[in-house]
Amino acid sequence: MNPLRKLTCFSISSLLLVSTTALAGYGGREIKVMTQNQYIGADLALLLAAPQNQFNDVLVSVLKKANANRFHDRAQRLATQIAKERPDVVALQEVWRLDCKDLATPKAGKGCKDPLIAGAFIDQLQETLSALKTKGIKYKVVARVKNLDVSLVKIGNLPAGIPFTVNTFPALLNTIDRDVILVRSDLQAQAVNLKPVCPTKISFEGCHYQWVVNALFPGAPSGLLPIERGFVIADVKVGSRSYRIVNTHLEVRDPTPDPATRIFQAKQAEELITTLKNTTPLGKTLLVLGDMNSSPDDREIPGIIAPYWQFVEAGYIDTWTLTPHSTPGYTCCQAEDLLNKSSKLYERIDHIFSKQDTWVENIHLVGNRQADKTLPPGARLWPSDHAGVGGELNF
């Protein structure tokens, strides 16, 4: 054989071997993750902006909508999606718990048991875990952050909560909003201790942001109810690799209830990015999941960098952009009543960010197809007003 040809063949073989070895570094699945905003079933912005003389009617309207939007049924469809995806980690936002207590002698079909609102009083986290169990898969709650909490409201001599009347019958509402990290039960995982990070803003295993919108609310401390937002972090081991998983839900962009909410969400993103920079140890593969309420289409406002672009400028990779897609990947939002026949998703605000270079084997929307809607009987509903995002990432 010609020596030059022999050398060339050896070089090509060596390159193929190197390439094969490099690809083997991505060998199969490394981690599968999913983010999903669950949705309470009604637009709370109307409640926060309601005049005091209309507050009761608006609150009852919100409860009726949440009842009609049947979270029990939606949880089954969300669980079906999770069972299909089999993610190692699920980041959930807007995981609500609504409780009701009658303020008069309980009567069948009255107050909290009024059929127009009774289905609204539900713990979405427990419903989700139960639905997953019926699908034959087990997830554990590793970390939570409690956001909005109306038990801060105290009016007169009544117990903490929001008093209201439905069909003239008095009752008391308590509710909390949470962001939660679920991890497959067979994986090693633990919540990161955030007390040194936010000693005065700790909430369950998570942190509240320093920047928080306050809504005028009778009975709340100083007449203001904090619309808390937060983040929660967990360390998860999948195979031989250790991951640090972050879940957050940033403030909305719209000027409700405060016209400065874009400033608040930008400050929250800045706080999270700084916290992760200062606390993530070497050797941890860092992933940030959640409802950022920020899109790559966000226009620049003087003095304000939108959260999406803050993450990109800080070196985070928007994993959606690493593979070609035939659709823009919009994740928000369906109609408030979830009854729209065709999808109305129009912006991409739910994200999976990676701080390390990654090869994305697959990333796609979840819960955005007609087949994903709730099943009869009853009107067919979208599982949430947000589509979820599922990704299979290799490092």
UniProtKB/TrEMBL annotation:
An example GO BP is: double-strand break repair
Q: Which Gene3D superfamilies match?
A: Endonuclease/exonuclease/phosphatase (3.60.10.10)
What cellular-component terms does GO give this entry? cytoplasm
Q: Does the keyword DNA damage apply?
A: yes
The record ties this protein, via SUPFAM superfamilies, to: DNase I-like
User: Which keywords annotate this record?
Assistant: DNA damage, DNA repair, Hydrolase, Magnesium, Metal-binding, Nuclease, Signal
* Gene Ontology molecular function terms on file: 5'-tyrosyl-DNA phosphodiesterase activity; metal ion binding; nuclease activity; single-stranded DNA binding
What is the annotated signal peptide range for this record?
A: 1-24
Residue ranges annotated as coiled coil are none
- Give the superkingdom in one word: Bacteria
Q: Which cofactors does the annotated protein need, by name?
A: Mn(2+); Mg(2+)
Endonuclease/exonuclease/phosphatase domain residues are 66-386
* Protein name listed in UniProt: Endonuclease/exonuclease/phosphatase domain-containing protein
The record lists the lineage as:
Bacteria, Pseudomonadati, Pseudomonadota, Gammaproteobacteria, Methylococcales
